[in-house]
Design a protein that fits this description.
- By secondary structure, this protein is an alpha+beta fold.
- It has three domains: 155 residues, no CATH class; 122 residues, Phosphorylase Kinase, domain 1 (2-Layer Sandwich); 219 residues, Transferase(Phosphotransferase) domain 1 (Transferase(Phosphotransferase), domain 1).
- It has 13 helices and 26 strands.
- The strands form eight sheets. The chain has a six-stranded mixed β-sheet with strand order 3-4-5-6-7-12, covered by helices on one side. Strands 15-19-20-18-17-16 form a six-stranded mixed β-sheet.
- A hairpin with a 4-residue loop joins strand 6 and strand 7.
- Helix 9 packs parallel to helix 12 and helix 10 runs antiparallel to helix 12.
- 34% of the residues are buried.
C-alpha cells in the first residue's frame, strides 16, 4: 500500500502543470486546447465560457458573431487564434466567405462592449496591419485595368454577368474607389505577405484565414493601473508589458534630458564628436577592408592600380564618356599608349557589392563578345574599374537615333544580334560557373571600331553553379522594360538564366524595329506594347512598314522578330536557351515556327488545375 501511494505521488509530481487542474483537450489537428479555451463538454471549471470551442467531424469550431469558423491554429505565446470561414476551399478559386467581416466587428478597446476578441493590436494600440488585413471584393460596370490595386477575378468570381469583378488586397480608401464600382464583400486575412499581383495569390491569402487575439483577457492578470497606462505584448520578449502612457513618457523624457545634460557637462561636446567620427570611420574602414580581403583571397588576374595611377591615366577625369546606374565612365590612357575606359563607381553603393560582383564576374571571362577587364582600384572609399576602350560607344545610339550619320544597315544589325547572343550563351553555358547578367539592354552593349559588340556592366550579375537551374532571389533586379516577368510574378516560374533570354528578346525586338518596345506616347493604345502589335503583322504576313527595305532585309527583320517573340514568352519554360537562340538566328527562316502570342502580364496562368485571371 505504501509503495502504491509513493508511486502515485511521483506520477503527480511528473505531470505537467495544468491550469486549474484541467488537462488539455484536443480535436482534430488542434491537439492542445487549454485555458482560456475549453471544449463543449469539458468540466465547468475548465477554461472560460466566452472562449468555448466545438468539435464537429473532428474539426475544431469557434463561434463568432453567431457564425461558425474552423480553427486552424492556436498560439498561446502571442495570444492569437487563427480561423477561416468554412466555405473557403484552397483549391476552389470560386469559393468565398459566407459573410462580410472586418476589424470593425472586433473590440478596439479593453472593454467588453463588442466581445472578447480583438483584431490584433500593436504596442501603441493601433491596428497591426501584418496581423489583420482586408480583402475587398467589388463589382464595377466598366473596366478599371489602369488601377494598380484592382486585381481581376475573372471566371473565379463573377458578381454580375455584365459587370467586371475585382479584388483589392489591403484597405480600400474612399479616394481609391473607382466611380461605378460597388463593394460586394469584405473579408479578413492574416497572410504575412499578401501579394496584390494575382487573384490566385489573393485567394490563397483568403483561404489562409485570419488571426484574432484574446490579449485583453491575458492583460487582466497584470496591473497597469498607474496614470493612463495600458497593457501590451512586447514582440521581442513575447511577454506582456505595462506602458504608462503620457505620464510615463514625460517622466522618461525628463530623466533622459537630465542625463544628457550631465553627460555634456562632464565630458563636453568635443568628446562626443570624436566618438561619433571614430565609429563612422571604423564602420566604413571595415567595409572597404572586406573588399580588399576579397580581392586578395581570390587572386584576381586583372592589374591592380593605385589611385594615383588611376588619376594620372584619366587626366583628372575630364573626358566623360557616359553615366549609368552604378557610376560614371571616363576616357583614359595607359602609359603604354592604348586608350581605356575607367568606370568610377558611385559612392552611394555603400557595401561595395556591385564592385565585387563586377570584378569577380568579368575578371574571369575571356570572350570576344564580352568587354575585357584590364584592371581595378580599391583605395579606401574610392573604387574604379578599368576596361578596354570601345570607340563606337553603346548600341542604343545607333538603333534609336534619327541622325543619319550613325546609321547601321540591317545586315550589320543582324550580325551584331548574333554576336550578342553568342556572348550571352557563353555566360550561361561556356564558363565553369553560370553567369546571369540581369541587365541586358542596348545601353550595355558596346561596339568597338569594327562594330563588334561586347556585353558590359556586370554590376547586377550573379554567379551560380552550372547545376543550379532555379536561382534564389530576394529582390527584382534589372531595368524596367527588359526585366523578365518572373522577377515580378512568382506564379509563372522560377528565376533562371531564362531571365536573360527574355531581356535579349526585348533587345532583339528593338534592334529589328529600331524603336523602343514600350512607347508611352504611341498614337494608339494597341501600339503601346510594340511586340503585341508586331506579332499580328508578322502572323498575317503583312508588310512591315519600314522604308527602303530590300527583300533580303525584310527577311532578316522577320527572322529577328520571330526569334525575339520566342524569347519574350511569358513563362520561362516556353523560352529557348541562348544556345538555341544562336541556332535560330543563324538558321533558315523557313525552319522557324511562329510562337504563341506574347503577354506582358500573366493574364491567364494555370495554377493547381485552376485558370486564374489577373491584370
Amino acid at each position: 500500500m505504501c509503495s502504491e501511494t509513493a508511486f502515485m505521488v511521483v506520477v503527480l509530481l511528473l505531470l505537467p502543470k495544468i491550469h486549474g487542474g484541467c488537462p488539455p483537450s484536443s480535436c482534430g489537428k488542434i491537439t492542445i486546447i487549454t485555458y482560456p479555451f475549453r471544449l463543449q463538454g469539458d468540466p465547468e471549471n475548465c477554461g472560460d465560457e466566452r472562449y468555448e470551442l466545438g468539435c464537429e467531424n473532428n474539426v475544431t469550431m469557434l463561434y463568432l458573431h453567431s457564425a461558425q469558423y474552423h480553427v486552424q491554429a492556436i498560439n498561446y505565446d502571442n495570444y492569437t487564434v487563427r480561423v477561416v470561414d468554412p466555405a473557403l476551399q484552397h483549391h476552389n478559386c470560386s469559393s468565398l466567405p459566407l459573410r462580410s467581416l472586418s476589424r470593425s466587428n472586433f473590440s478596439d478597446t479593453y472593454t467588453d462592449r463588442m466581445g472578447p476578441y480583438q483584431a490584433g493590436l500593436d504596442p501603441a494600440g493601433n491596428w497591426e496591419s501584418l496581423n489583420f488585413e482586408h480583402i475587398v471584393f467589388l463589382n464595377c460596370n466598366h473596366s478599371v485595368r489602369e488601377k494598380g490595386k484592382y486585381v481581376e477575378s475573372g471566371e473565379c468570381v463573377k458578381w454580375d454577368s455584365n459587370g467586371y469583378s475585382y479584388a483589392v488586397g489591403g484597405d480600400l480608401k474612399a479616394k481609391d474607389l473607382e466611380v461605378g464600382c460597388y463593394v460586394k464583400l469584405v473579408a479578413p486575412t492574416s497572410f504575412r505577405t499578401l501579394n496584390n499581383h494575382s487573384y490566385a495569390a489573393i485567394h490563397r491569402a483568403l483561404a489562409y484565414g485570419f488571426e484574432i487575439s484574446w490579449i485583453k483577457l491575458a492583460c487582466q492578470k497584470i496591473s497597469c493601473t498607474f496614470g493612463d497606462g495600458f497593457c501590451y505584448l512586447d514582440s521581442s520578449s513575447q511577454k506582456l508589458q505595462c506602458s504608462f502612457g503620457l505620464l510615463d513618457t514625460l517622466a522618461g523624457i525628463v530623466i533622459y534630458a537630465s542625463m544628457v545634460w550631465a553627460y555634456k557637462i562632464l565630458f563636453g561636446l568635443p568628446f562626443l564628436t570624436v566618438i561619433f567620427i571614430r565609429k563612422w570611420w571604423k564602420r566604413h574602414a571595415s567595409m572597404y577592408q572586406n573588399i580588399e580581403n576579397y580581392l586578395e583571397q581570390n587572386n584576381m588576374a586583372p592589374i591592380r592600380y593605385s589611385y594615383k595611377e588611376i588619376k594620372k591615366m584619366a587626366g583628372g577625369f575630364k573626358e566623360k564618356l557616359g553615366e549609368g546606374g552604378f557610376g560614371s565612365v571616363f576616357k583614359a590612357k595607359l602609359c603604354s599608349g592604348p586608350c581605356v575606359a575607367i568606370k568610377m563607381l558611385d559612392k552611394s553603393k555603400g557595401n561595395g557589392q556591385d564592385f565585387i560582383s563586377e570584378v569577380a564576374t568579368i575578371g574571369r571571362i575571356h570572350h570576344q563578345n564580352v568587354v575585357q577587364l584590364i584592371g581595378f582600384c580599391a583605395h579606401g572609399s574610392k573604387r574604379y574599374i578599368v576596361y578596354e576602350f570601345m570607340s563606337n560607344g553603346s548600341l542604343d545610339k545607333f538603333i534609336f537615333s534619327k541622325d543619319e550619320s550613325v546609321y547601321l544597315s540591317y545586315e550589320k544589325i543582324y550580325n551584331i544580334s548574333i554576336e550578342v547572343a553568342r556572348g550571352i550563351a557563353y555566360l550561361h553555358h561556356g564558363c565553369e560557373m553560370k553567369i546571369l547578367h540581369f541587365d541586358i539592354k542596348p545601353h550595355n552593349i558596346l561596339l568597338d571600331e569594327n562594330f563588334l559588340p561586347k556585353i558590359s556592366d556586370f554590376g547586377l550579375a550573379k554567379l551560380y553553379s552550372i547545376d543550379n537551374s532555379i536561382i534564389p532571389m530576394t529582390a527584382a533586379r534589372g531595368t524596367i522594360g527588359y526585366m523578365a516577368p518572373e522577377l515580378f510574378y512568382n506564379n509563372i516560374g522560377g528565376i533562371s538564366n531564362k531571365a536573360d533570354v527574355y531581356s535579349f528578346g526585348m533587345l532583339l525586338m528593338e534592334m529589328a524595329s529600331k524603336r523602343k518596345n514600350l512607347n508611352p506616347s504611341a498614337e494608339y493604345s494597341s501600339q503601346l506594347y510594340f511586340p503585341l502589335w508586331i506579332y499580328d503583322h508578322i502572323r498575317e504576313e503583312k508588310i512591315i512598314k519600314m522604308e527602303d527595305l530590300t527583300k533580303d532585309e525584310k527577311s532578316i527583320v522577320k527572322k529577328m522578330i520571330i526569334v525575339a517573340l520566342w524569347c519574350i514568352q511569358l513563362k520561362p519554360n516556353d523560352r529557348p536557351s541562348m544556345n538555341k537562340v544562336v541556332e535560330m538566328l543563324e538558321g533558315d527562316i523557313k525552319d522557324l515556327e511562329m510562337p504563341p502570342k506574347p503577354f506582358l502580364y500573366p493574364n491567364e496562368t494555370v495554377t493547381e488545375d485552376q485558370t486564374i485571371n489577373s491584370n
